[in-house]
Queue: 3 jobs
Job 1
Amino acid sequence: MKISIGTSSESRSGCAGKGFGTIFFGLFFLMGSLFTVFMLAETWKQIEPWLWPATDCTILSSGVTETGDDEAAYRPLVRYRYEFDGQVRESDRFLRSGGDTASFDNARDRAARYQPGDAATCRVDSNHPSLAVLERNVPWIGLVIFFPLIFVAIGGGGLWTTWVGFSSNEKEVESISQKATSGRGQKFMVGFGLLFIAIGGAVFIPMALVPSIRSAASTSWRETPCTIVSSSMRSWSTDDGTSYRADVLYEYRVDDRSWRSNRVEFFGFLSTGYADAREILDRYPDRASATCWVNPRVPSKSVLERQFRFKHLLGLIPLVFILAGWGVANYGWKQMRVRKAAEEKTMEEASEDDSPRFLKPQVGPVGKVGGSLFFALFWNGIVSIFVWQAWKGWEQGNPDWFLTIFLVPFVLVGLASFGFVGHFLLALANPRPRLTLTPGQPRLGGELRLEWRFAGRSSRLASLRIFLEGREEATYQRGTDTITEREVFATFDLANTQNDWEIPQGAIELTVPSDSMHSFEADANKIIWEIKVEGEIARWPDIGQNFPITIRPIHIENL
């Protein structure tokens, strides 16, 4: 038998590699840091009013006013009088941020909570008594700070790895077993997956779930005639160009009372393009008569259009984050359970069953298709959000060159991922190896017999190689990174042929050297044995499957 002993060495980053890594990860770190600082400042701004002292006040007037800002055109205008430090003051500040909103309904409902003559409680900045607010925002934005922190972690970890992790000034080279520490990778995966689920849920709920529930509930709302009070195009500048919104303010009567609203549809956030806004304005010109749908139990709630449109499916994009997070967290949790089971039961206590065993591949052809498809959808789902933003800028004649150039490598990876999906789909038609190992768990110093046969057209195979490989894996922390190193310590060729009559099926026996290492799994170290099958097919995806096996310690009688 052929036995090859090999070691792996850590690759060193050259000047070009360090330069590219610095630029690439530096952008991640810089962008994440800027967003983090901005969100921290905004969070503190929303927290401050919760620390201000409460003061009694009297409502003087209540209504809705236009702000002149197309992005947030309406504001609840509630004027109130309060006394602080012996001085009577007046203010109309509703929230610390002013309370500006694009929804007339929101501004109207907020103002309706305060009627002239009512007693209320306001909050006053003791350092600036002229600054008071009626209501305080719950600083939910602070929860979103974890999203830019992901970019900070990726960028910082990448920079550390580029300049420190791969430094050639290491004074001592240790075995990967010595460098291994307690396994924390699985816990990180669970936490990272849960974070992705939280982010996806925080976006999916307001973006798709709530509008869908409201749309379904509106099927029982009452058809009511209404009049278009005003119909105007709202526009505002963004980092990706100009966004547009059709602001249609309409009026209707229920039980001899007039109501106003500007809710056109429940998925209004998806209509930020000029064409969509223009189409809505054409359907509802000024002073025209129309039909709206009113909630019979809450007459202030109404909508002009309640039908589902194909573009509303864009609201499902956050599901990519939720599914990806669930997949990562579930995998990490399973690995934690496997590790725990390994701790409770050593390899010496493994099954003594010497009967033949039919081997199962580590990842079958269908699993490879599923895994590659999941990655392709996950990766392209995230990238498509930014591509869509870049495309909007080009479509509106205001291209963002930095964003476009930055996205090029990510788009190429996304296209390549679909190429892998196609590759594995073609591989489904390959002949599939069926391996039987006797005994099912061979020992060091003992005999093993491997039988193979192919299901399918094995005549398509131009060559076949089957070999047994032993390798060590260790996971350890280097700075902020969790690194797994792999080192192949033994390779045994079992079959290597191009003969047509030998490929379809065969058998071979091997004595496993007693001085090798048995299978082992701990917190951060593993000894893994696999039988690998490699088959070459001309002008078609080749066969490449791994079949994990367990090799038990040497028998006590052989010592």
Job 2
Amino acid sequence: MNLLVDVSVIVSTYSENKLKYVRDCVESLKGQSVMPCEIILALDPKPALVDFYRAKFSNDVRIVVSSRVGLSNARNAGVKSARGEIVAFIDDDAVADVDWIRNLADNYADPEVVGVGGYIEPVWDGGCPIWFPAELNWIVGCSYKGLPEHRAPVRNPIGCNMSFRRSVFDVVGYFRPDVGRFGRMLLAGEEPELSMRILTKFPKSRIIYEPSAVVYHRVPRDRRKLTYFVRRSFYQGISIARFMPRETTIREGLSSENDYLKYLIKVAVPSKAKDAYKLENLSQLIIMSLSTSAVLVGFLVGKLVR
């Protein structure tokens, strides 16, 4: 099958220790039912890191080096060098389903579609903790209960599995490095901030969630800890306060978060409360309450700091 568009796939990494996962990711891209026009490995500007990966991959993986460290800078370097009409992003510790590119790219037959994201299945090292509800999979960068079950418009995709038309970056700019992950602070928000700029600039455009476009994302053992869970929830609140445009009302800027909160209140909590005598359900109810509280505190802190 030939697509109407060419797709460049960007993988970003920052450590030699990620080699095994990067290789698995790249192999999954080389085995696609519809091949990308190129695979780009975007690296931090560290000479040793660049030399290491250049020695590990052949010419069918194009290496680009960002001007500054950080995920957003690496993604931006990849976008600026991409040749395809569509740029797709996948994390360095994820592998793509064989039809990933095809199922993402098919959506671009609609000229009003400017971005497409897919489903991210968590693959837990050591298994998922009994107390961790699927409604909170966003904490580990994966798709969560509460997202649409079928193809639907969304405000933004999740970074591990997303794509955009290359042309929109020329108009709205690139990922903002000051919004996302920085050092030990578990910030996020590059994807919603960019997506909101795109949808504002192109008001008739749409970003689509396509659950048939699947990637499998590794969740390392250190993310199974309750301390990580609380910190990540807190910093999510700060991130929301940071990426929401100043001129946007809370209701407009937090449309996705409001829909998600309604799902928790109307669906997730009642379904688990019905069988709250079960340890699994009771613990997950407590964890959802703890996460919501941590996000709220982080949001208030973020608004004060901002």
Job 3
Amino acid sequence: MSARTDPAARDFHAAFAHHRAGRLDRAETLYRKVLKRAPGHPDTLNMLGLIALARGRPQRAVQLIGEAVRRNPAFADAHSNLGNALLAAGRDGEAIDSYRRAIALAPSAPAPAYNLSVALRAQGRISDAEVALRAAIALDPSALDWRCELAAALMELERYDEALGVLDELAGLRQDGGDVLVRAAALYRKADYAGAEAAYRRGGALLPDREEAWNGMGLCLRAAGRFAEAEAAFRRAAALAPDRSEARRNLGLIGKLDAVETGRLAQAAADAAASAMDRVAAGFALGKLLDEAERYDDAFEAYRAANALFLSATGRRYDRATTAAQVDRIIAEPFSPPAGPASDLAVFVVGMPRSGTSLIEQIAASHPQVHGAGELKAIGRIAESPRALKMAQEHLEHLRRIGGGAARVIDKMPDNIFLLGRIVGLYPAARVIFCRRDPRDTCLSCFFTLFASGNPFSYDLSDCAERQRQTSRLMRHWQDNLPLANLTIDYESLVRDPEGQSRRLIAFLGLDWDPACLDFHKTSRAVATASSWQVRQPLYARSVGRWRHYAKHLDALGDFG
């Protein structure tokens, strides 16, 4: 029946017009009038569900739109809308099912594919999200924001060059600055800090009110050791987004967060209306302030709550059994036969995160013949490739280029400790430095650090302890058996005798001593890890035995004796 003669159809069209104009109260009244005339009308139930969703009532939206698809299982738009409601209600898995039904019913509609990618990212299924995003973009090439999101997903997969390629294609199509900020983030993650700083400055010029532009710029400046400029950038970011805490956490990491912020951060960490990750950032910043104020019990509680919230929000879990089995397998494996280039350029600094790897690199890189390359991720990819030997040679050429004539280039990726059996074959003349620290201090420091990525064990103290035990077991195996030149440096010995241990380090590298190594905190180079500020301070002893302040909270660590 046509709208001219059917009152229900007439009311529906009128309601829809009000709905499109944003007059939700009037639209809802008319939709309910339709339901009185035509109970169970799927289109009306769907639209009432959308109004409930717009009003922040996702569970009610699920009920209404769910009834619409029950009455009309072939209603593709309603399946997609149901997915949106389920996603808003925190029911990611069910949302994914709804989006897949919508796609099956309307394969040419781009929105369900895009929405599917959002739900998959919410579950941490980034590779699957990439596939869905590419499908959505193929259906609607004009959706430029989706290309930015594809670049962001590729960054999460550590495919930075591909992300930059997507942004290159986008550069000529948009000028709003959003893509510039994504580019800046990709360059930063790729360790091109100068390029990232330039991109953040462009983004800040285009979008001066965007907090992430100034926070990102601050990160680049912090990595470069330009702490006064970094402080100004972080403070501008904090002023632009006073309800967010990431910039304040970054101020704390460079020692520029005032104790007067304690109350604000405590409030932000407890704010149930704030995003989970902003509450996490506030909790870590609060913990640092309380630790510096020697309020150790309060500090531990702030860190504990922040870590627990991080795990709940991200769904990340550390697989202890897999790591233990991996270490068993590595210990049982024979070493790869030496077949790679006979170059002594590469130096690998390995151990647990927060065990002194950044400090060792900074001391060595203060020598004029040593280049510190930071945490490179290439070795993991090389070791797993059927082209490993060729890639190893290419990587060696890369090290020569970035080293600029240095005699030694340091890769301080801690997790390379799991790959030393392969490194024997790829770089048979390489040197290895094992970093060792009191495991209680190491685990506590990991637990107190919000890492940019990786290290899923760090958010649970018992997981920290298990990762420490497996790393120590593997380190003892390498120390006893590794057919590569290797040296072990204890953090505590380095703090107690900086010159003696530094001379020992430089001698191990086969170089003449240079007194600049004792002034490592004055060395100008990019350091983007959580230790970027500490390694530019004179060596201090307050981190040795820090665990004693928290002894009563550390039962989860067990016995490291």
